[in-house]
Design goal:
heterodimer, A: 115 residues, mainly beta, 7-stranded mixed sheet, 4-stranded antiparallel sheet, 11 strands, B: 110 residues, 6-stranded mixed sheet, 5-stranded antiparallel sheet, 55% strand, globular
């Protein structure tokens, strides 16, 4: 199974600022996903990030607010822009095994608090 | 989009007892996966069951899937305090992104 790391593990930020979260995988993967988990809630998909193409965003999420980079098959970043307290969440990246229709493995998450 | 619904939302049992969590979903699926999350950390993959499978075992875990009822159950036998966590079901349809349920919070007391 893929081993995924995220940086930072947690951060406290001021409103109006931006934070970039990094996701590193120990093997090459085609499909990477970014999820948000608001306090006490389940996970909601933000976007799918495939190398070599623009990220695909889910309804309610836009590129200006959550720009994503996917420069290679082992790395991706998610930026949370112009943050407000409502952005306080855990942000998780995940990767799908070959074909994308199998097990997804998740990183440890980034816990973000916006003041 | 959220598809799965787990019940109960919260479950409290004693060590040694079995814990059963249920998940219902709305549309056709390719597979259903169960995850565990400890104290707001990352998700740990527990088990994947495909739409053409009815039951799967992994250690103390038993998962069933009833596609006619669009439901699944996760049974943890002989529970331990270390099983205390939130458990989520997630479905995969024809796409590639998981649709998560709201989760069941399990508390196992010594």
């Amino acid at each position: 199974s893929a081993v995924i790391s995220q940086k930072p593990s947690r951060d406290i930020c001021q409103r109006g600022t931006s934070l970039t979260i990094q996701c590193q995988v120990d093997s090459q993967v085609t499909m990477m996903f970014w999820y948000r988990q608001q306090p006490g809630q389940s996970l909601t998909l933000i976007a799918t990030a495939n190398q070599g193409s623009e990220a695909t965003y889910e309804s309610g999420f836009v590129i200006d607010k959550f720009p994503i980079s996917r420069p290679n098959l082992t790395f991706s970043t998610l930026t949370v822009s112009n943050m407000s307290p409502e952005d306080s969440s855990i942000y998780l990246c995940s990767v799908a095994e070959t074909g994308g229709q199998e097990t997804q493995y998740f990183g440890p998450g980034t816990r973000l608090l916006v003041l | 989009s959220q598809q799965g619904e787990e019940d109960p939302q919260a479950l409290s049992i004693q060590e040694g007892e079995n814990a059963t969590m249920n998940c219902s979903y709305k549309t056709s699926i390719n597979n259903l996966q169960w995850y565990r999350q400890n104290s707001g950390r990352g998700l740990v993959h527990l088990i994947l069951i495909r739409s053409n499978e009815r039951e799967k075992h992994s250690g103390r875990l038993r998962v069933t899937l009833d596609t006619s009822k669009k439901s699944s159950s996760l049974l943890i036998t002989a529970s331990r305090a270390a099983d205390t966590a939130s458990y989520f079901c997630a479905t995969l349809d024809s796409g590639y992104a998981l649709n998560f349920g709201k989760g069941t919070s399990l508390l196992v007391t010594p």
